[in-house]
Design brief:
The complex is a heterodimer of chains A (194) and B (177). Chain A contains six helices and no strands. By secondary structure, chain A is an all-alpha fold. Chain A has two domains: 35-94; 98-194. Chain B is an all-alpha fold. Chain B has two domains: 1-81, Rna Polymerase Sigma Factor, Chain: A, CATH 1.10.1740; 84-177, Arc Repressor Mutant, subunit A, CATH 1.10.10. Helices cover 75% and strands 0% of the residues of chain B. Chain B has helices at 3-24, 29-47, 56-69, 83-89, 98-112, 115-125, 130-137, 141-176. The N and C termini of chain B lie far apart (61 Å). Classes of the chains: A mainly alpha (194), B mainly alpha (177).
Chain lengths: 194, 177
């Protein structure tokens, strides 16, 4: 098969492409995106809404209990997360697949890697704060409970904390590690060709 | 004409390009449909903000290739495959259109290449100039030229082997008959 033949064969297939109906196209552009960047945007949005709901619920709870210090701290935390997510959205929405392949892969890889790191850091902080806060409130509510004097209780709490953290890390790794690896491989292929 | 109507006409015009790229990066009919839909969706989203900073074809190729390269299959691969792949696996039957068969073998050869090499040869087969290929992929023009020659000979070797093997099968079938 000569060089010219390859191009000739390539051209013949245009004749066999099926017609695209208007309703099919309409369905396509109204459909859900499966792109990795859209998944990141979707997760970021869900996470942001979740944070707002939980923070407001906790602010209401602490106000109800008369814990104004905690309430104030949570209001500050909520303000900081809103600013953080606004900046994150802007960054994610700037990434367009109309960039050249090398630049697009580079930016997708960097965003995905940052996303995984952010999750690992957030999980570590949130779990530590949640377990610490739970323990603090538990002791404050019931300072004379026997379990607080029992070292086994703390070992159990620490075990649950470590296992939960490891499970979350594993989940993030299972979801994103292969994607990160694939994009890195593509970037390596491009760099080797360049 | 509304922007949606403009877009519909636009996608119909670009359908052949999108089909060829999606077909080269999909293993099944289901994958192909997913990729085509995603490309159409991303083109629609970028359509209004497209400011002719690059050629329309460059923009379409970039979007289609970026979508195909970063697409991660969600569903398990089903045993059902595209008509092209089915044709490749089945022994060649009498009466099968030789043009379709040649196209199938060419696609099979393209799918043996690495993803980025696939993108380079697709653009070459689409008669793109080295400058435009470099612009779409983010490579240098010189490297594009060097790589195309290597990929072409790699593809040619594969196709020759495949056609030779098919020829042997046809001979065997003729002897058996």
């Amino acid at each position: 098969m000569q060089e010219l033949d390859i191009k000739e064969i390539w051209r013949t297939q245009e004749l066999s492409t099926p017609e695209l109906e208007e309703h099919q196209l309409e369905r396509m552009i109204r459909g859900k995106s499966q792109s990795i960047m859209d998944s990141l945007k979707k997760f970021t949005r869900i996470e942001h809404i979740g944070n707002i709901i939980v923070s407001i619920a906790m602010i209401c709870y602490f106000l109800y209990r008369g814990d104004y210090g905690f309430s104030f701290a949570l209001v500050v935390f909520l303000g900081a997360t809103v600013i953080y997510y606004k900046r994150l959205y802007n960054k994610l929405y700037r990434i367009q697949p109309s960039a050249d392949v090398h630049d697009y892969l580079l930016v997708v890889h960097s965003e995905l890697r940052d996303f995984v790191r952010k999750y690992q850091i957030s999980f570590s902080l949130l779990f530590t704060v949640a377990f610490g806060l739970g323990l603090y409130l538990g002791i404050r509510e019931n300072p004379n409970a026997d379990r607080f004097g029992d070292p086994i209780f703390y070992v159990k709490i620490a075990s649950v904390y470590i296992v939960s953290l490891l499970l979350c890390f594993l989940l993030v790794h299972v979801i994103y590690a292969s994607k990160l690896r694939k994009i890195k491989q593509l970037l390596n292929q491009l760099d080797q060709l360049n | 004409m509304s922007s949606k109507e403009f877009f519909n006409t636009f996608v119909r015009d670009q359908k052949a390009i999108i089909t060829k790229i999606c077909r080269s990066y999909s293993d099944s009919e289901e994958d192909f449909q997913d990729l085509f839909q995603e490309v159409a969706l991303q083109l629609w989203r970028g359509y209004e903000s497209f400011r002719s900073e690059s050629k329309v074809s460059t923009w379409v190729y970039r979007v289609a290739l970026n979508v195909c390269l970063t697409h991660f299959k969600k569903r398990k691969r089903k045993p059902e495959t595209s008509s092209i792949d089915n044709m490749l696996r089945e022994p060649v039957q009498e009466g099968v259109d030789p043009v379709h068969e040649q196209v199938a073998i060419l696609y099979e050869g393209i799918k043996q290449l690495k993803e980025i090499e696939r993108a380079i040869i697709l653009l070459y087969l689409e008669d793109k100039q080295y400058n435009e290929i470099a612009d779409i992929l983010g490579m240098t023009r010189t490297n594009v030229g060097v790589r195309i020659n290597r990929i072409k000979s790699q593809l040619k070797k594969y196709i020759d082997a495949r056609v030779g093997h098919q020829g042997d099968m046809e001979d065997a079938r003729a002897v058996n008959a």
